[in-house]
Structure formats: C-alpha cells, structure tokens
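Quick one: structure for this chain?
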Amino acid sequence: MDATELTAKGFHISTDNSLLDFDTICNFLQNDSYWAKGIPPERLRLSIDNALCFGIYDVKKQIGFARVITDKATFAYIADVFVLDEYRGMGLSKWLMQTIMAHPDLQGLRRWSLATADAHGLYEQFGFTVISKPERWMEIFSPYLTQQN
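Got it. Here's what it folds into:
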C-alpha cells in the first residue's frame, strides 16, 4: 500500500506536536516497548519536547509514533518508533520511515543512526546497515528498570 492509498483510508502523518496523544505514546513505551520500559512520564515529555516527532493517525486517533533527535545539519538519531499492534502489516511503518527520510529539515545529513532488536528488514530498505566500525562507538546505558538487555 502506498501513501496515496493510506491517505485515502483516513491515515495521515504529522509533525505537529499539538496532535500527539501523550497517553498513547507513554502507555506504549512504558508497557509494550522493549527499549523504554518504565520511562518516567516527565522524562518522556521532555524527550518529545526536544525532538522532531512524527505521529501516525487514523483520522484523529494516534496509532504510531517516532522521534528524531537531530541538529538538522549533520546528524539524526531515530528513536521510539512504533505502530500499535492492530495497525501493523499495513505498510504504515514503511510510510513513516519514507516520511522521516524525506522531511525537509533532515536533508543533507552526514549521519543517521538508530538501534533496533527486531526491525532490521524495515530499516535496511532505507539504507541502514550494521555499524561498520563499532569500535568507534561508545555508550553509557542506564535502563529505566532493572532488566535483562
């Protein structure tokens, strides 16, 4: 299904933060994601306020989300990507990624990055690969809940 078909079915994507359904986003990330379980609502609110956010909507109901952390000049990190279970398999995540990659504020960047445990096939369609020189990357990782990662 392409963007025209999805739009015709009442779906749309917006970067207008005033449309975001914080409760839907918070519930999914706290309870259904493997990467942000237990994120405190105030921390999530701050992360949304300081990122370029993309919401997917079925008419007015929020059904998907992604955040892009970026300086809009050289780097973007894609985070918190999800589509609610009942809307999966319709091409919405692919459409979301197409929309993110085509956003005018994100053109000409030198580096994009993201982390995923299970969606490599989706991201590979957009040119993402396994980090070629992982020895150059470092991290400090502090999960919100004590969990096996």
